[in-house]
Amino acid sequence: MFEIILKKQLAPNVKLIEVKTPLIAKKALPGQFVILRVHEKGERIPLTIADKNLEKESITIVFQEVGKTTKLLGRLGVGDKISDIVGPLGNPSEIEKFGVVIGVGGGVGIAALYPILKGLKEKGNYVISIIGGRSSDYVIFREEIKNISDEIYITTDDGSLGRKGLVTDVLKEILEERKIDRIWAVGPTIMMKVVSDLTKNYGVPTIVSLNPIMVDGTGMCGGCRVTVGDKIKFTCIDGPEFDGHLVDFDELLARLKTYKEEEALALRLFEESEVGKVGHSKN
Q1: 117 and 252 share one domain
Q2: Using one digit for the tens of pLDDT, what is the confidence trace for 14-42?
Q3: Domain limits at 44?
Q4: What is the mean pLDDT of the chain?
Q5: Which residues does the annotation place in the binding site for FAD?
Q6: Which of 44, 118, 199, 277 is paired with 184 by a 20 to 30 Å CA distance?
């Protein structure tokens, strides 16, 4: 059992929890993730490690409440315990001195991008960050990203913070003017596809962190398979980071819809059961 020692609301339906996990905190590196179950009969879900604290022996996880399991996780508070957490899983990011690097983050992917950029900055890279969201409420980790960036650009769909537009608008302008050595993109799959399509035209190596359907995290189930450069890869053991120019994003986007109906049904039944509990408590 793993105790939650800190909880924050970062944005509508987006929460941060810090969990005491001594062994995982000791070994975790940028780019890696964990798989957790809220309770012993619960669904296994992969979540990226956004940060770690060796003194507190803890890791930080940021998640968006979109389905039954993430809503259950979001209801836990400080002092509550998570049934099991496995990790760190996946290959760590390649953190080296590249020169000038750009990190592009969207939605909760901004939190996952943070430890990668932090590691790149510590290696002496010149770090440019481009982060965005639907509105100012959804652009999380702004101060954290700002503190480890040489330049930071913010975009929002409605213009309520930073520049109105998409992260790729800013990225394209920078690519037109300057030499960039490497790019990381972490966020919605469609965002990573658009970033990769853009940077391919400029020949800039681009790394994406994929988050497909995943079950066991050991390469046994095959649920997280993706096509990269005409080869089948398993995100949990071969990734989660891949060359964005080689990923078959169209196939990945289609696979992400595989269990949409089942996920919607599970969420509806869960919400109906919660309404029933409220009604029962009133009687």
Answers
A1: yes
A2: 999 999 999 999 999 999 999 999 998 88
A3: 2-89
A4: 92
A5: 62-64
A6: 44
In this prediction, residue 265 has a pLDDT band, given cuts at 50, 70 and 90, of: confident
Please indicate, yes or no, whether residues 114 and 247 belong to a single structural domain of this protein: yes
Annotated binding site for [2Fe-2S] cluster: 221, 224, 236
130 and 236 share a domain?
Answer: yes
Task: Give the integer Cα–Cα distance in Å for 228 and 233.
Answer: 7
pLDDT digits (tens, 9 = 90+) for 158-177: 999 999 999 999 999 999 99
Q: Is residue 140 within 8 Å of 108, Cβ to Cβ?
A: yes
pLDDT of residue 276: 59
Strand (E) or helix (H) holding 278: helix 260-282
Mark whether 168 and 248 lie in a shared domain.
Answer: yes
Instruction: Supply the CATH number for residue 7's domain.
Output: 2.40.30.10
pTM: 0.90
The number of domains in the chain is: 2
Which alpha helices (DSSP H) does 68-154 contain, by range? 68-75, 109-122, 142-147
* 140 and 221 assigned to the same domain: yes
> Structure tokens of 78?
């400080």
- Alpha-carbon gap, residue 111 to 107, rounded angstroms: 8
Q: Letter for the amino acid at 231?
A: K
Q: Are 33 and 48 in contact (CB under 8 A)?
A: yes
Reported for 171-178, long-range contacts at CB under 8 A and 24+ positions apart, including other chains, are 171/102, 171/104, 171/130, 171/195, 171/198, 171/199, 172/198, 174/102, 174/128, 174/130, 175/199, 175/202, 175/204, 178/100
CATH number of the domain bearing residue 191: 3.40.50.80
Residue whose structure tokens are 């020169």: 99
Residue 47: CB atoms within 10 A of its CB come to: 22
Nearest Cα to 38, choosing from 11, 6, 74?
A: 74
110-124 pLDDT, tens digit per residue, is 999 999 999 999 999
